[in-house]
User: Fold these one by one.
Assistant:
Number 1:
Amino acid sequence: MKENVVKNKSFTFALRIVKMYQFLCEQKKEFILSKQLLRSGTAIGALVREAEQAESPADFIHKMAIALKEANETEYWIELLFQSNYIDETAYNSIKTDLTEILKLLISIIKATKQNAKK
């Protein structure tokens, strides 16, 4: 069976988000922004998993599109946490790189699925 790259990357990313959330709460005493990050950052992988059981190509595209929206929201929270000095540049660049990979994968999957659905 072929490896599901987006599934694996989104799960690993969710683990990083959970750890970042724990750091922000315990070390920085930041509870509001970090909760938003936790929700959107872990939703990406959950939606990818949901898409695996999609009822139709349209349902699959819809679930992946929502995952893409959550990834975009996560990007916002990460940038905000960086710009407000809750996370340093090293942490920001590292997690941003992972998120950019996921964003590219989701966009590619959505485009390819839409093209295949037209055939």
Number 2:
Amino acid sequence: MSNQTPDANKSNTESPKKKVTVISCIFASTFAGAIAIAIYYLMSSIIETYADKPVVSDNILVLKITVAVRTLVIGMAALGTGVFGLVAIGLFLLGIQVAIKDIREKMG
């Protein structure tokens, strides 16, 4: 049996809550948006590279594996772009919500 009391376990798992500010939301949104744009340009570069270098083979298995790998790589880049883009939009909207909440608290 452990020597710790239930209160000791509770204090170890709690973390101090940070206040969400408009500045932190805007900064995080900008950072996530920059990552989304970078991944988008990387994806565009990958697509152009794949288009410029077609696979030449008579083996149907080689062609199918190549198409699968290329689709997977482009799909992962598109997924990263979408996720970071949606995170950027969400954080920006959160910043607007926090700003409206702050204004309402100051007015009333």
